[in-house]
Design goal:
Blueprint: H1 7-48, H2 53-80
Length: 81
């Protein structure tokens, strides 16, 4: 059985759940980016014997950049509406 919805219903659902979807995607982006940079920093630290310099530095960089990008996008979306 196929259920058909009209365009207004789809637009209403998109507006209703779009923000929740966007927030969940950004949370995954923040977690994945920080973990990747963390492990890349760990790999560099093992090779150069500088523990935990690059590990913490790249972790902080990834966290700063992803959260900054999230706020930048939210600021522009706020100004559009």
């Amino acid at each position: 059985m196929v259920v058909h919805t009209d365009r207004n219903e789809m637009n209403r659902l998109t507006r209703k759940y779009g923000t929740i979807f966007t927030m969940s995607v950004w949370s995954f982006v923040i977690v994945i980016a920080t973990l990747l940079f963390f492990f890349a920093g760990y790999w560099i630290d093992v090779r150069l014997d500088t523990k935990p310099t690059f590990m913490l530095g790249l972790f902080a960089l990834a966290l700063f950049m992803t959260v900054g990008r999230f706020y930048w996008e939210a600021w522009h979306k706020k100004n559009l509406h």
